[in-house]
Amino acid sequence: MNASTDQETRRHYPLAIALWLIVGGGLVYGISQTVIKATALFTG
Amino acid sequence: MLSVLDRSRTVAPAGYNRWLVPPAALAVHLSIGQVYALSVFKDALRDRFDASHTQIGVIFSIAIVMLGLSAAFGGRWMERNGPRKTMVVAALAWSSGFAVGSLGIYTEQLWLVYVGYGFIGGIGLGLGYISPVSTLIKWFPDRPGLATGLAIMGFGGGAMLASPLSSFLLQAYAATPAEALVPAWLTMGAIYLVLMMMGAVVVKVPPKGWAPEGWTPKESKHRLNTGGQVNAKNAVKTRSFWLLWIVLFTNVTAGIGILENASPMIQDYFPTITAAAAAGFVGLLSLANMAGRIGWSSLSDVIGRKPTYIMYLGLGAILYTGVALYGPASIVLFVVFAVFILSFYGGGFATIPAYLKDVFGEFEVGAIHGRLLTAWSAAGIAGPLIINSVLDYLEGTGATGAELYRPSLLIMVGILVVGFIANTLVRPIDAKYYERHDAVPDHEREESAVAPELATAGKQVQS
Fold first, then answer.
1. Pairwise CA distance, residues B288 & B303, whole Å
2. Contacts of residue B453 in chain A, CB cutoff 8 Å?
């Protein structure tokens, strides 16, 4: 059980890091788009 | 084969890095957060079905009601079956919601969109919303506010991501948005299925008794939990549960008061504001809503949950009074007040799971949170109803500008005061509701039977 769990965990490390990058990138993209939209309050 | 989804198969081994778990929660919440960007499709849906605003608005209402109901009724199932199985079911329901909704759009059957996106998708919303909460609380017992803030921040971020993505897809797929709806919804359903499934693969629960290295629970005379653990069935029998229900209900109702009418409100307060600037104001409020989720919720780990809600509700009431009485005097003042109000609205959502953990323990905190979310559904109906009915009445009397909003804002002040009082009345739970000292949830009993060696992994907390 432990051995297979360890193997499974090692397999999931890169996926978890990739997921951090995907969700982090998504959040940064969404926030930057909203910031651009929000600036219209001061320029529009 | 499906056993890979079982809770026992998601238990992390010793030494697992807990910071690998939050992206799973964020992946799910970023996906289901799309529901707040549904309005991007509103005009295209109206064109496609030749339907009224109300008929299209019903899609969102059904989804939010189903969110509350599925979170309430699916909470204990989630606790028993673990976050991975719950995330998979949520992913299937959420993406199927888009698929069935697309079929409804293709065949021009609006009822099928209600069933698809509203009913089936709404089940995915509720289960997805609660799926990572108790897991994160167990991984971050030292900073539960930060942990739940991280996940629930994703829900706010989901709309920010979905909004430009939806606009892009509507333009890319066909000459008119109405024609692009079906491929756009199918694409979004597929993207969310993959993202949520990745979250389900990555999510892990800590072994029983795990705690961060070197951390011991703090002793404080102000602690709301005296060490007892309360199950979901007993939690709803306590006065504190219903007081917290009122706290969430009032905080959400008041926040919706601003959110629902942000664009027309700023234009009525300040007639020189253009439509583009008003849209910018809405964007600013979205940022405040999201920042409040992570910021104020993290602060609650330092100052405590009850003082944090005293701030949300007490300072919130003062700010609402400021908008009602002094808002028209200065646009800067108006915007600053509104930004803080919306940050408290977001913070209220993100801090409540940690508050529940303080009061009821982490025993079945996910299921208790699910039941408390019915307050959200109720507020989703009450907030717009109060604001819009007062607006309709005042418009009939010929009122204009800030006068249109003053009475409903002052009603919101009263609602916040009710929530403030409810928060101050929250007390530790009577010991008669506690689980027996040696009681363990069903899922943990199963884990111990399947993998007893894992129960000794990590540091053990003596309770």
1. 21
2. 1-2
Beta bridge partners of B11: B205
> Would you call B279 an interface residue with chain A, using a CB distance cutoff of 8 Å?
yes
Specify the 3-state DSSP secondary structure of B11. Answer: strand
d(CA B452, CA B204) in angstroms, rounded, equals: 17
Contact B299, B166 (CB under 8 A): no
For B283, residues 6+ apart whose C-beta sits below 8 A from its C-beta are A34, A35, A37, A38, A40, A41
Give me the total of CB pairs closer than 8 Å, taking one residue from chain A and one from chain B. Answer: 113
**Joined tokens for residue B413:** 């002040």
Distance CA(B148)–CA(B153), nearest Å, equals 8
Percent helix, strand and coil across chain B, each to the nearest 5 = 80, 0, 20
Cross-chain Cβ contact B280/A37 below 8 Å: yes
Spatial contact of B70 and B431, defined as CB atoms under 8 Å apart: no
CB A23 within 8 A of CB B19: no
Phi/psi region, residue B406 (left: phi>0; alpha: psi -120 to 50; beta: rest), is alpha
pLDDT per position as a tens digit, B112-146: 999 999 999 999 999 999 999 889 998 999 999 99
Distinct helix (H) and strand (E) counts, chain B: 19, 0
ipTM > 0.85, yes or no: no
Distance CA B439, CA B202 (A): 29
> The pTM is what?
0.85
